[in-house]
Specification:
- By secondary structure, this protein is mainly alpha-helical.
- The chain contains 6 helices and 3 strands, in the order ααβααββαα.
- The protein has a 3-stranded antiparallel beta sheet with strand order 1-3-2.
- Helix 1 (10-31) crosses helix 5 (96-117) and helix 2 packs across helix 5.
Length: 146
């Protein structure tokens, strides 16, 4: 007897997110990082290694749906841990240590993703990506209107 596939809804999306995040959290614990820090490392890397502090805080609050004070704390923690350095009053940059930590997280995360997504047809992944992007856009619009 096969288990019926449930329709996509918030619970199904949430369960997939939490399972994937739990797998990543094992990597983050090993390298001594947090999920928020990993998102910040990705954001700074995506900007070439240097970004305006306010822009990084905005990216964290927007992506993670956290309070600005929590995002500020994350950036402050990262400078204390020498993952980021403040290059002037408004910019933060990855340190060599930050680059190394991000590379370790990225590599391990890609390995986890390869195992998790193995065997799923590319067209199914593309459809899921389109649907989840639309759901994210609509949920963000709901938040903006609240």
């Amino acid at each position: 007897m096969s288990i019926p596939t449930p329709p996509v809804n918030g619970q199904v999306i949430g369960l997939a997110h939490y399972a994937s995040r739990a797998a990543l959290e094992t990597v983050l614990a090993r390298v001594g990082s947090t999920f928020n820090q990993s998102v910040a490392l990705r954001a700074v890397t995506d900007q070439g290694g240097t970004v305006e502090r306010d822009r990084l805080v905005g990216r964290l609050t927007g992506a993670l749906k956290i309070e600005e004070s929590v995002a500020e704390e994350t950036v402050t923690e990262m400078t204390a841990l020498k993952l980021l350095t403040e290059t002037d009053t408004s910019l933060v940059s990855l340190t060599e240590h930050g680059r190394e930590v991000f590379e370790e997280i990225r590599t391990a995360g890609n390995e986890i993703a390869a195992r998790v997504y193995a065997g799923i047809p590319a067209e199914d992944l593309a459809t899921a990506g389109r649907v989840l992007t639309l759901v994210t856009e609509r949920a963000n619009a709901e938040l903006a209107g609240a």
